[in-house]
């Protein structure tokens, strides 16, 4: 048996319906080179693209996945990882992207909002550790609202102002 660890996610990636990478983050050195990552992604896509299930076991890893219109979303963990934990990350990623992209989780909208997609992913997983599994919390943290087109000038100004305040108070201490 493996010892319990916070590091539960090995990789998260999104492919288009031809198996080409749109977004990918690897959190350990299982696939250290870009070439190895691309080969792994292609093999996973070939195994999962024509099935209706949501889970696969491939190369000693547990993979949960979901497809939406012309995208395939994957979350990869080790073979002993809890599938429900992996699925909660996948669900949170999909629901957060769904909200951010105004219910248009498809390639064109994802490419136009790639910066937001990386922010969403970074709020959910950091260095392989699951930080958040509630899409509402992720959306709130990333500052996407239904009446708002994403990150606004105001929110950037608020972040800068907050940083200035923190620096000022740290210098005054």
Explain how this protein is built:
This is Coatomer subunit zeta. One of its GO terms (cellular component) is COPI vesicle coat. It is a single chain. This protein has a single domain (7-170), classed as Beta-Lactamase (2-Layer Sandwich). The protein is of the alpha+beta class. Helix content is 45%, strand content 21%. α2 crosses α5. The strands form 2 sheets. It has a 5-stranded antiparallel beta sheet with strand order 2-1-5-4-3, with helices on both faces. The protein has a two-stranded antiparallel ribbon with strand order 6-7. A hairpin with a 2-residue loop joins β3 (55-58) and β4 (61-68). It has 6 helices and 7 strands.
Counted by DSSP, the helix tally is: 6
Structural class: alpha+beta
Spans with pLDDT under 50 lasting ≥5 residues? 145-150
Give the terminus-to-terminus CA distance.
48 Å
What level of helicity do the residues show? 40-55%
The CATH class label is Alpha Beta
Taken as a percent bin, the fraction of beta residues is 15-25%
Average pLDDT metric: 84
**SSE pattern:** EEHEEEHHHEEHH
- The CATH topology label is Beta-Lactamase
Spatial order of the strands in the main sheet? 2-1-5-4-3
Gyration radius, rounded: 18 Å
- Total number of domains: 1
Characterize the largest beta sheet: strand count, sense, and whether it forms a barrel.
5 strands, antiparallel
**Which geometry do the CA atoms define?**
globular
Provide a quick synopsis of the model.
The protein is of the alpha+beta class.
């Amino acid at each position: 048996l493996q010892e319990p660890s916070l590091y539960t996610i090995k990789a998260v990636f999104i492919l288009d319906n031809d198996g080409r990478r749109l977004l990918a983050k690897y959190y350990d050195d299982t696939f250290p080179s870009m070439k190895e990552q691309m080969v792994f992604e292609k093999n996973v896509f070939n195994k999962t693209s024509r099935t209706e299930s949501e889970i696969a076991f491939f190369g000693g890893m547990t993979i949960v996945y979901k497809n939406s219109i012309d995208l395939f979303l994957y979350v990869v963990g080790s073979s002993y990882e809890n599938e429900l934990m992996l699925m909660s990350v996948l669900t949170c990623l999909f629901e957060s992207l769904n909200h951010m992209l105004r219910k248009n989780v498809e390639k064109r909208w994802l490419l136009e909002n790639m910066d937001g997609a990386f922010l969403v992913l970074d709020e959910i997983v950091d260095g392989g550790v699951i930080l958040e599994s509630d899409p509402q919390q992720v959306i709130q943290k990333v500052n996407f609202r239904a009446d708002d087109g994403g990150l606004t000038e105001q929110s950037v100004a608020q972040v800068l102002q907050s940083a200035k305040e923190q620096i000022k108070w740290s210098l005054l201490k």
